[in-house]
């Protein structure tokens, strides 16, 4: 049995997952926090578990103490007012809230936002393009999604600095080693400030609705039902939290994979140069499958005795579906350990499956496509500026991502002004 959750495992968990898939596809494991959980690693079992209504998202169903100890991994969950978000609730509440938010957060909302994502992307690249080197995590992948989500939610520009500080604090805490700050007390204070700010902002916007997402959340109604101010604040919070670090790591892991596979990356550059976006679309999906940001889906708890992959799971047991393992299952994907940006048969689980399927997938795709296209077009000889073995991964449970991604490239000539 390979060692799980070690430093080597954080660097490359895939051999351990291959072993689990083959020898112990549904395995009871004690996590570094001391909490026990079933790890589900085969694609078929994973897909079934993600859609199984007997697996609840509500931590009250945990037979242990995860709720009391705030171990579900999302900062602020101990702040009861923010608890009622989509990833913590089951039908019928989930159905009602998801329907309401879906009215505000539509693919059209995202499409209209595309020029702003391009502008942000170019702005961050402008800041380092003349220098010939950069840390793509800190200077690009980290700031892009938080600026995007602030704009999308409708956080006024003058408040965005504070908002970004609180969000950064929460993510740095969830990710030990990502910069300074982030003690438990500091995170609790940041979450509290963000909640108070969101409630106040929602209140302010109620009298002056715009075309931003928070206004959309206030406006959304379903058979005469609206979100309460607390529900709207919790919704804005989960949109921010679910959409921030995931996008940082989708860009970071994706660029890392592209730099490590020059032939694939050259094919993508050629197709972009020819003005063809088809390969870019399949590439974003393949990068998610091959080394996606969400290593495990969020916690689920058995509400009754059941079986997963033939193993009995007791009521109250936590279940973690390992998306990274399922998406490399040879029973579902041809040559799963090979990256093929043109892969067409690719029903990966990187965005989850079932009723909790990622609500932000259209935005994530837009940000990823824009980021990869801009980087590869503007910095065509982008290369890793570190030994691959020296790169450090963050080692969290749910998320997978790099701490830094040092790159070098020929400096972009400044346009003559
Ligand atoms: C960048 C890549 C992203 C990935 C790989 C990703 C992945 C996921 C996954 C795997 C789930 C399901 C979790 C589970 O079932 O336990 C999920 C749910 C969710 N995601 Fe994403 N996500 C991404 C970006 C975003 C963005 C940008 C947003 C919003 C701005 C977002 C908002 C959400 C929300 C609200 C849920 C909960 C949906 C529900 O419970 O009904 N995500 N995401």
From TrEMBL:
It holds the Pfam family p450. Keywords: Heme, Iron, Metal-binding, Monooxygenase, Oxidoreductase. It comes from the Bacteria. SUPFAM superfamilies: Cytochrome P450. One of its GO terms (molecular function) is heme binding. InterPro entries: Cyt_P450, Cyt_P450_B, Cyt_P450_sf. Belongs to the cytochrome P450 family. This is Cytochrome P450. It comes from Actinacidiphila yanglinensis.
């Amino acid at each position: 049995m390979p060692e799980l959750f070690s430093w080597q495992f954080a660097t490359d968990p895939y051999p351990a997952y291959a072993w689990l898939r083959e020898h112990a596809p549904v395995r009871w494991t004690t996590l570094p926090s001391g909490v026990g959980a079933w790890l589900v690693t085969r694609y078929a079992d994973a897909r079934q578990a993600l859609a199984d209504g007997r697996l609840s998202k509500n931590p009250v169903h945990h037979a242990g103490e995860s709720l009391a100890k705030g171990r579900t991994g999302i900062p602020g969950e101990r702040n009861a007012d923010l608890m009622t978000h989509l990833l913590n609730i089951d039908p019928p509440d989930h159905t009602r809230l998801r329907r309401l938010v879906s009215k505000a957060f539509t693919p059209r909302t995202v499409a209209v936002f595309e020029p702003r994502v391009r502008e942000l992307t170019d702005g961050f690249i402008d800041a380092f393009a003349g220098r010939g080197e950069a840390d793509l995590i800190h200077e690009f992948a980290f700031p892009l999604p938080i600026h995007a989500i602030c704009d999308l939610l409708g956080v006024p520009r003058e408040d965005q600095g504070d908002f970004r500080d609180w969000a950064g604090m929460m993510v740095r805490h969830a990710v030990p080693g990502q910069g300074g700050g982030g003690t438990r007390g500091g995170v609790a204070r940041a979450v509290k400030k963000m909640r108070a700010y969101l409630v106040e902002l929602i209140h302010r916007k109620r009298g002056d609705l715009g075309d931003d997402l928070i206004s959309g959340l206030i406006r959304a109604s379903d058979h005469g039902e609206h979100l309460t101010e607390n529900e709207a604040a919790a919704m804005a919070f989960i949109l921010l939290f679910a959409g921030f670090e995931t996008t940082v790591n989708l860009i970071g892991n994706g660029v890392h994979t592209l730099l490590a596979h020059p032939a694939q990356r050259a094919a993508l550059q050629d197709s972009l140069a020819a003005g063809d976006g088809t390969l870019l679309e399949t590439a974003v999906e393949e990068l998610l499958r091959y080394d996606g940001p969400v290593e495990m889906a969020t916690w689920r708890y058995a509400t009754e005795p059941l079986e997963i992959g033939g193993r009995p799971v007791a009521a109250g047991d936590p279940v973690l579906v390992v998306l990274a393992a399922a998406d490399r299952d040879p029973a579902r994907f041809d040559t799963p350990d090979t990256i093929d940006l043109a892969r067409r048969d690719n029903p990966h689980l990187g965005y989850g499956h079932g009723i909790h399927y990622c609500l932000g997938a259209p935005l994530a795709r837009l940000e990823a496509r824009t980021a990869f296209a801009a980087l590869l077009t503007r910095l065509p000889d982008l290369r890793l500026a570190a030994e691959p073995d020296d790169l450090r991964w963050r080692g969290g449970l749910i998320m997978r991502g790099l701490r830094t991604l040092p790159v070098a490239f020929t400096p972009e000539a400044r346009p003559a002004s």
